[in-house]
Amino acid sequence: MFHCLSLFFYVLVLALSLTSAARDIATKAATIPRLETDPLTKLAELVVPYGYPLDVHNVETEDGFILTLLRIPHGRADVEAASSAKLRRSVGTAASRPVIFLQHGLLDSAAGFLVNGPGRSLAFLLADAGYDVWLGNVRGNTLSRSHAFLDASDARFWQWSYDEMAAYDLPAMMQYALRTSGAPSLRYVGHSQGTTVLLAALAGPTGEGRVPSQRASDSDAVAKGAPAVPAGVVERAVLLAPVAVAKHISSVPLLAMAAMGTDDMFTLMGLHEFLPSQELVAQLEGRLCVVQPYLCVSFLAALCGYNPSNLDITRLPLYLGYTPAGTSVQNMAHWAQAVRARAPNSMRCFDFGVNCASFSGRCNQRMYGTIEPPRYNLTAITTPLAVFTGTHDRLSTPLDLEYLRESLGPGVVKLSKNLEAYEHLDFIWGIDAKELLYDDVLRFLSGDDDDDDDDDDMGSTAANRGSSAAL
Ligand SMILES: *[C@@H]1O[C@H](CO)[C@@H](O)[C@H](O)[C@H]1NC(C)=O
């Protein structure tokens, strides 16, 4: 019942955003008081009032996108500890804080790791545990909508999918974080698409066809199929609700999109931003909240599924202020392709098709030099991984996960947990995420892999050791 209504809401939003009538409504709705419009100011409201430092960095990718990279360099309690650590660093002795890089999911932004506030959201827990926390924002989200020479109103601004995020966005942001902090390597936590882009970046292509990173770079290393992010950069990574192979997804909106051909999607929605009228989506959601609080879920929730019993209803208006954060139609089409893919299942680059006279004017031969889109070689990944999934997750399903585990080399997944009744958004919004999930995440990040042999006491001792070593 609930999901049917979500679907109805989705169809409504989609229909409205696709018709010119939407513009009239948007004009009328403009009289309703709105939330703060500047996305960065709005995001800072999640951090600064609580006494945490927030640094804002702009990072330009090799293909010209200007991304907002956020940093919470230390926790609230250790302002003084931080300044003394800085002092030590400036005289070139003591170790600095370990860098942790957090990467959000589809239609989300860095806000996903912050919205539940200190003591609950992962970014704050990590900062308080002694990490130097960096939060990525991939191209096209509300915080990363600039380009060196393209305007977001230009269709060329939106011609990318998660392939380009893996090829350009992650390497640029990671290099920047390491250079700025002076750390030799980093640890990583990704949610949903944030896991996909890491896997793609670490895997590299199988060697057939030129992948996106090779289009920009003439370097021999990339041409030989080296990964976008070299193995040594990421020490260990946590995958929250990973989506790599998407064959068994049961998200209704995604299945609806998968039923459409890629060219149909481009023809229908244009080769632009997906759901361009974000303001309209926000308005509709806002009205829905007044009329029927239980229907007041974000578009992201309708797409991904969430667990009403593990959702703090009072925080819904807050969530709605930050999602959906925007992506391209091509990226949604790539997800639709992943859902549609026939066996053998694998992680593939965006399929432009073989028709070089297509709507988009692009085809596989032109883009990759091959008829089939290149595949990512997951076997090449050597980074130790912890994988957290939910039994009720409609995007990250057990069957797809089993395939992912088989595709990865033996011994790469060091820790794997399947959380009872967890849905896709519980990993970031869940009321009990700290107790059921983040404590384990911190333990793994601190370097304690031997989950099977551990009892809780040993685990927490190790975690304490990890954080005090960090300080
Ligand atoms: C994938 O990577 C592994 C390990 O580096 C390598 O042995 C294998 O040949 C690669 N497979 C393909 C199809 O490129």
Describe the structure.
Residues 1-21 form the signal peptide. This is Partial AB-hydrolase lipase domain-containing protein. Residues 461-471 have a biased composition (Polar residues). Residues 449-458 have a biased composition (Acidic residues). With 471 residues, the chain is an alpha/beta fold. It has one domain (2-445): 3-Layer(aba) Sandwich (Rossmann fold), CATH 3.40.50. The protein has 20 helices and eleven strands. The protein has helices spanning 2-18, 21-29, 39-44, 79-90, 122-128, 162-181, 193-203, 212-216, 220-223, 252-258, 262-269, 278-291, 299-304, 316-320, 329-340, 364-368, 398-407, 426-429, 433-445, 456-470, and strands spanning 55-60, 65-72, 99-103, 132-136, 146-147, 186-191, 234-240, 273-274, 327-328, 385-390, 413-419. Strands 1, 2, 3, 4, 5, 6, 7, 10 and 11 form a nine-stranded mixed sheet that branches. It has a two-stranded antiparallel sheet with strand order 8-9. Strand 10, helix 17 and strand 11 form a beta-alpha-beta unit. Helix 6 crosses helix 7 and helix 10 (252-258) packs across helix 15. It is globular. Residues 1-9, 12-36, 87-94 and 451-471 have low confidence and may be disordered. The protein binds 2-acetamido-2-deoxy-beta-D-glucopyranose. Residues 206-207, 377, 379-380 line the site of 2-acetamido-2-deoxy-beta-D-glucopyranose (NAG).
